Amino acid sequence: MTTLHIVDDDEAIRDALGWLFQSRNVPVIGWESAQAFLDAWTPETTGCLLLDIRMDGMSGLELFDRLLAQGSRMPVIFLTGHGDVPIAVGALKKGARDFVEKPFNDNELVDRVIGALAFDHDQRVREAGQAGLAARIASLTQRERQVMELVVAGRLNKVIAEELGISMRTVEVHRSHVFEKMRVKTAVELTRLLTGAG
């Protein structure tokens, strides 16, 4: 499981939340300020951010805006007081995942954070898979790519040979290279792989 980052300038709240999540086996790092988290953040930082909207110095909302500007897609859940609900709704429209009003139900908060951590993990796995697929496609020669497109379009080797003006044997060789490089055994697998990736 990836890590929950709790950003709250109130040490007692940070400690209480840390204990709550650790009791449910959620890895936690506490940050005493938005600036401290921002200074440590990199695009490779994984997990979920549990962020108090109101803090001394940089507010939770400012931190959220700065992270968005730097390309962060880390799921963010805001902790809000009753008066901050309109601000939290605005943050949702900008891409925050959720907000939870204080006082909150402990189990509900933990469940929402676990959902956000799972989302972050799945998103990263999907992106890694897409990057790997893009690299495999990039390894194909131009002719292999042409053959692959026609195979995915459902053309038979004979038809591909006619369309590309090459021999059937050459099509078979290219087709075999495509399957090997794309790590599939059949045209159906190849089609599924490429349509799954959009």
TrEMBL record:
It holds the Pfam family Response_reg. Residues 3-117 form the Response regulatory domain. The modification 4-aspartylphosphate is found at residue 52. Gene3D superfamilies: 3.40.50.2300, Winged helix-like DNA-binding domain superfamily/Winged helix DNA-binding domain. Keywords: DNA-binding, Phosphoprotein, Transcription, Transcription regulation. The keyword Transcription regulation applies. CDD domains: LuxR_C_like, REC_FixJ. GO terms for biological process: phosphorelay signal transduction system; regulation of DNA-templated transcription. Residues 133-198 form the HTH luxR-type domain. InterPro entries: CheY-like_superfamily, Sig_transdc_resp-reg_C-effctor, Sig_transdc_resp-reg_receiver, Tscrpt_reg_LuxR_C, WH-like_DNA-bd_sf. One of its GO terms (molecular function) is DNA binding. The keyword Transcription applies. This is DNA-binding response regulator. It comes from Azospirillum cavernae.
